[in-house]
Prior knowledge:
By secondary structure, the chain is mainly alpha-helical. It is built from nine helices and no strands.
Amino acid sequence: LLFPDPNANDSDIRSDTALTAEMIFEQFPLLDGTPGMDDAVNQLLKQRTSVADSVKCNIYNSPSTIAPTALCGDAAHATGGVSGQGCNSALIDAAVLVDCLNENYHPLENDENNALTKKALLHQSLQSYSNKQVPEGLALYDLSFGNDGKTLPIFRNLRATFSNAIDTLFGGRLGIGKKPLRTLLASSLDSFTEIRRDRQKYFVEEFPTDEEF
């Protein structure tokens, strides 16, 4: 219903936004009444399947004026399979979100404003999650797409090309070079931000510090 064959001519399915909205609200009741949902449903119906795309968001939590909502995984930082870290990064998002809820969501049972307190604590939890994971998502985006069309100065470009060749040939064996990026991402326990900062020589722009984030 949501993603028919993009080459098909059945426009009736794609034009039934009311039915699609009804299905969404049935699965996600908190979204009912959220401003902008009509536009969101129309955008959803216009999406094609099996098209690799990228997503880069600078915030993963909803504003306090609407229902507490968080973005995780590809909804927050899709790289189209370039990095091979889509599943891993989504699982990390979920784990960090749980940690943030455990740290911040502690409503009191005898609170007279319990409903408002719960909502405020949820927003606080999601803000904490966003603060922690936005740098990770941006770092993964950089590691996946490099300079995204920008070019290093000639000397730095030659140096980065040489270093990359050494890494590919030796992969850290015999103490020469480092593991290739794909291998590093799949085997290292370092965060994406740590890996991104360690590979600054390959990038035109400096990665923001924790204070800048």
